[in-house]
Amino acid sequence: MTFRVLFICTGNICRSPSAERLLTSALAHHRSSGEVLVGSAGTKPVLDAAIEPQAAQLLSAAGADVAGFSARRLTPSLLDEADLVLGLAREHRSSAAQMWPSALRRSFTLREFARLVSRITTAELAAVVGDGAPLPDRLRAIAELAPLHRAPVAHPDLDDVPDPYGREAEAFEAAHVQIVRAVEAIGAALELSHA
After folding, report:
1. From first to last of its 195 residues, what are the pLDDT tens digits of the chain?
2. Domains recognised in the chain with CATH numbers
3. What is the pTM of this model?
4. What does 103-152 look like in DSSP terms, one character per residue?
5. What are the Cα distances from residue 1, in Å, to 60, 122, 132?
């Protein structure tokens, strides 16, 4: 069964396509990765635009494919189809919940989700999904376990990846590093059930 991940940011040209392409690249080594569809959309997209050049350069340097991207608008149907919705900031998670209320239970910010899945233990995951389970089942399991680790945080703004659009190169690099680390945490959680 296919598992769909949807990343959301504002313009859909910097943060969400970066997360989309980095997660797609990270999942490529999994045999059943074709059963996971990773996409992105924007709340106020630059429709049909390619990935912003500074973001694209960082993605290419990280080995991610930037070809063929076209920015699109967040729609209720995209939210309805998504099994996991990851906003790049709290405002994007809120926009998803306002547009499609049933998406709330499966919506997080990317950094929040990364923090939560890093708390999942091998034993917890094994109780939900067995060793050697297909990638979509492992993703579904960590998405179900993540909310169990929610707790108040002192600085919720740290769950946001600041928007680098229109800013200096350092802002793009900082956003890229935050996205890479979050994607790595998700990948590590997937490996717990694949060891």
Report:
1. 899 999 999 999 999 999 999 999 999 877 665 699 999 999 999 999 999 999 999 999 999 999 999 999 999 999 999 999 999 999 999 999 999 999 999 999 999 999 999 999 989 998 999 777 888 999 999 999 999 999 888 999 999 999 999 999 999 999 999 999 999 999 988 886 544
2. 3-192 (3.40.50.2300)
3. 0.94
4. GGGGEEEHHHHHHHHTT--HHHHHHHS-TT--HHHHHHHHHHHGGGG---
5. 30, 23, 15
